[in-house]
Design brief:
By secondary structure, the chain is of the alpha/beta class. The protein is built from 18 helices and 33 strands. Among the domains are: about 140 residues, Rossmann fold, CATH 3.40.50; about 100 residues, ANL, C-terminal domain (GMP Synthetase, Chain A, domain 3, 2-Layer Sandwich). The longest helix is centred in the first third of the chain and has 17 residues. The protein starts with a strand and ends in a 12-residue tail after the last helix.
Amino acid sequence: MAESFEVSMAGEEKYYVPDPSYKEHAWTKDYARAYQEFLADKEGFWEKQAHHLEWFKKWDKVLEWNYPYARWFVNAKLNITSNCLDRHVANHRRNKVALIWRGEEGEERIFTYKKLYHEVCRFANGLKKLGVAKGDRVCIYMPLVPEQVIAMLACARIGAVHSVVFGGFGVNALNMRINDAEAKIVITADVAIRRGKTIPLKTIVEEAIINAPSIEKVVVLSREVDQPVELHKEMEIDFYELMEGVSAECKPEVMDAEDPLFILYTSGSTGTPKGIVHTCGGYMVGTYYTTLNVFDLKDTDVYWCTADTGWITGHSYVVYGPFCVGATVVLAEAVPDYPDAGSFWKIIQDLGITIFYTAPTAIRMFMRVGEEWPNRYDLSSLRILGSVGEPLNPEAFEWYYRIIGKNRCPVVDTWWQTETGMQMITTMVGEPMRPGFAGKAIPGVVADVVTKQGAPVEPGNGGFLVIRDPWPAMLRTVYKNDERYRTYWHTIPDCYTAGDLAVKGKDGNIMIIGRADDIIIVAGHNIGTAEVESALVSHQAVAEAAVIGKPDPLKGNLIKAFVILRVGFQPSEKLKSDLIYHVRMTLGPIAMPSEIDFMDKLPKTRSGKIMRRVLKAKEMGIDPGDVSTLEE
């Protein structure tokens, strides 16, 4: 790729300005002033945010920066669940609704902060009965139900490190994550429910732990009331039986600010998925601050983030950030098109949602079925709309703003990553919004668009998106692979390299235009090319495989695979179907190729590296660029 590149700025001057009342009542009333105050005293800025939270012992120093390693709130002691639960139970929020759960068929369960606190404490005590202690890793592989949130908070309560695995992943993906984290316990459910059908999670777990020697027990939530799941008593225990006969009080474990809170696996461009490690203190401060300020969240808001808790968005903006703030959080085991295309709008109408945070893929799906669906429902409760997971293209922004927000709700298009832990770039509530541009670095973050050498690009040009200074919620390492962590900071000198290409507007706004490496974003989910290729090659018919992302108007990208067959196997439509099914069973439905081409050879460098960009260029009919390293 070139050092930088020019970009056509169609619609450069198009802005939407929210009603002045949004800015007048926002937590961050003046972005420019807040950002200058941050630049004047960066550590002081974050110290001020940290003072809004409760600590067992305050810090000796805000930041200890030994490039590329950071320690935030040095020697401070805390427990994040004390801020998510105890401090609300101790004040006027004890009877406030903390969590509203909606099932696909309209089932509803409600937890006040007091009830959620007692459920978390009971499950934490249950985990202790199983021998789980501070520092132990616990794998959570569950559907989007309240018990998943309870399990996460219970782990944090006793200092266990949770590793949540998205319930759409298959046996191999789950096994890899269990073994890498050396998890002691798996918490799962008998089934997930999606589009009226049951998906057997427990059977996937049973296969995944066959070669997982670290696992001692499996905790199973039984959802099939008419057909209770059969448990193997020597290894398995019922979720609610574990909570019987234990106290509803559990003293929070005293955690150092730099103790690990969780490991979350994200797809890497090469090799196995990376176990991103986030720690207790800085992550708490970062997610609290952004939830409050980016969403401008008030005590009266009803907040719904549609992300699955198995992804970082669910960690930061379904669980930890909103509960630290004391929000009323909606959790819905729902999809946008079941039982019909009005499912999300019905939830917003029924529950009076005020803040709605979803993915561009969902927005494009809504666009496809037309505006008559949202127009059937009363969406007047909405006051703020959010977007996350991939770039929000201008057409989707316009539709979201006009049809869902009725030309009045600010749209906060957020850029951030599993690695950043918190939102980094957006348009703060009340500021002018520019379709296609995520916005500017939030106060607390120094972002830039640079060349490969780290020099800032000229306004109007594109380059690599970087973060110049450490921030509290940043990853601390990659679990058991610190070299991969250092790569983030050593790819471009003195910067955290995000791996995204971006454009710097003349007004300072930043447009994110996609990944610079070999990660494919499908419906907002990061899918590593290496994982899908490994799954394909594990089939007896496949000798070699390469996959690329192919632009798709609905999902952002589809996965296209190029496959070389072993001797003795012939291309056929049946084999294509078999390979797609094989990937589904290995990694899960989100990683399934939509297209497969059989090839005689793949474009490779002389050192043997597959040149995926050549495949992508040919697929899209564009110039592949420099191919001087291509093997003859």
